[in-house]
Description:
This protein has one domain (19-69). Strands 1-3 form a two-stranded antiparallel ribbon. A two-stranded parallel sheet has the order 2-4. The termini are far apart. By secondary structure, the chain is α+β, with helices and mostly antiparallel strands. The longest helix has 12 residues, at 2-13. It has helices at 2-13, 54-59; strands at residues 21-25, 32-33, 49-53, 63-64.
Amino acid sequence: MKYTAIVLFIFLTSFIPTETMVFICGSGGAKKYHLKDNCRGLSSCKQEIVQTSITKAKNSGLTICGWED
């Protein structure tokens, strides 16, 4: 019975979508988010590249980088 509950839990949680993570330049003036940490749009970033959720990026007013479209 315990084994069945564990298998069922693993099966059901595998369908829960995970939050998409994106990358932004750590400077305070960032305007875009990037899907890959090696995006061309991040090449001019002088600060560290920070990983955050896409929800937080969009809620902060950031839009997707033009190189990512």
